[in-house]
Amino acid sequence: xxxxxxxxxxxxGPVHRIAAELDREIExxxxxxxxxxxxxxxAARSYRIEEDRGYxxxxxxxxxxxxxxxxxxxxxxxxxxxxxxxxxxxxxxxGLPVICDxxxxxxxAQARELAYVAREAQMPFALTFxxxxxxxxxxxxxxxxxxxxxxLRKVVVEYPQGWLAGEAxxxxxxxxxxxxxxGAGGCIxxxxxxxxxxxxxxxxxxxNQVMPDLAAVVPGRRLDDDxxxxxxxxxGMRGVLLASQIELGELNGLRIRxxxxxxxxxxxxxxxxxxxxxxxxxxxxxxxxxxxxxGAAATAMTRIPGGHPEGYLEAFANLYRDFAGVLRGKAANxxxxxxxxxxSMAFIDTxxxxxxxxxxxxxxxx
Length: 366
Description:
Largest sheet: 9 strands, mixed
Radius of gyration: 20 Å
CATH class of the largest domain: Alpha Beta
Number of domains: 2
Strand order of the largest sheet: 13-12-11-10-6-9-8-7-14
Mean pLDDT: 97
Distance between the termini: 31 Å
CATH topology of the largest domain: Dihydrodipicolinate Reductase, domain 2
Number of strands: 14
Helix content: 25-40%
CATH superfamily of the largest domain: Dihydrodipicolinate Reductase, domain 2
Low-confidence stretches: none
């Protein structure tokens, strides 16, 4: 793996490195970690890779690695949103597969361009919608697809955080509230898009209309930091998406509840090793990680016996395991890719525009 971004002070760079290497199928060997050559070499040392494989820019990395017998096999893009398109495009056009942080790009137009480039290059492209990698999220998806809840009626997905309730301090906060770096969406693009993707992934149903209410609550903030979006799905299901980064005391409270004619299911990211299944006969079952009843998809993503918690890093690693499988010619039907990327960018774009125009119910189109 070659990495773009993830230099000194990065949160997500080390996460990608740990996740990619957890199953020993992938090794980080090079990176354009920073546009400053010295900082890129510093990052290389911190990742315990050869210092001369810490490059000052992506073009330099692609050219140098192409000349090596042990050059990189794919590129991970872990930069702020505005660099996703140019970095992914350059790697794909150089004949290298790409795995990229979400959202896909900074704008819908960029997402369409990136999808075109990936299809023309005929190279694998994946997105790290991390929460789709949790075993019990995949188990919920499979049980719902098999009809466990009957006709789906309602989904409630919420992602509360509180870390941007005041001034945006530090590198990780500052770029997220800057439209030049984050794109048109703030909270909606940072965590709202995770909630949207999770709702479609778990239910297997697509959103066709949205009614958004986005706000920049913190005075002077240029991008939204609090979001409420009503959802309508194919097949008639209704939903509501709540995402906020100004709810003091909240950490990373992603939660999804799905209700059908025959029951309901609920899962929380902060307690990810079980989900609750309410049944139409009035009984409730707690489905736990490593239960004997789990299907193949969840079992394949579970590494250790039940009672030993697995969480964010393992879920992230599951996406990298899927991606490694794709590069070796295997199918990975649950790995987010171009379709999920385009739909998530359409969600951000539609919500931002409809909110600005006070448009009410608005069709979600790619």
